Amino acid sequence: MARTLTAPEREHFLALPHVGVLSVAADDGRPPLTVPVWYAYTPGGNLHFFTGSQGRVARKTRLLQRSKALSFCVQQSEFPYKYVTVECTVVEENWTPSVEEVTAVTSRYLPPDLARAFAEAETAHPAGTFVLFTARPDRWLSFDFVDDAPASAGE
Question: Quick one: which of 108, 129, 5 has its CA closest to 47?
């Protein structure tokens, strides 16, 4: 039978380097904007992710500034399936993040030299379009199908 993750389990799962899916309320009657993002999270802390779009302010940046709230989801797409969704409040917008702050996110997804090069490139000449957001997790939803997994041979 599927079950809800405990608080430590869900926080540990969110802390793994999944690609997150961010959803933010849209404007003009459109459906919510839902996009994949790289992020960083430490259990018990806040969620950190960035937005930027080739020298222009990304739509998600404008929507996050307006709504100050988002939903965020990560999943394990192989059986046994597992997911964590968290509703968050935006608590900070950093329009001039440091190389170290950006590297804390990119190093989860890229080799060290590429992670740092990406961070240096994005922070070298701030164009006012690259934003590091910090969001506080407020409400959690999780599911783990681990109990539905067949026992392995020898058990």
Answer: 108
For the chain, which domains are there?
3-147 (2.30.110.10)
Contact 32, 24 (CB under 8 A): yes
41 and 72 in contact (C-beta within 8 Å)?
no
What would the pLDDT profile of 44-62 be if each residue is shown by its tens digit?
A: 999 999 987 666 778 899 9
d(CA 57, CA 131): 9
d(CA 2, CA 80): 10
pLDDT for 155: 37
CA–CA distance, 93 with 48 (Å, rounded to integer) = 10
Check: pTM over 0.85? Answer yes or no. Answer: yes
> Which of helix, strand or coil describes residue 72?
strand
116 and 99 Cβ atoms separated by less than 8 Å: yes
Angstrom distance (rounded) from CA 101 to CA 49: 10
**Are 53 and 65 a contacting pair, CB within 8 Å?**
no
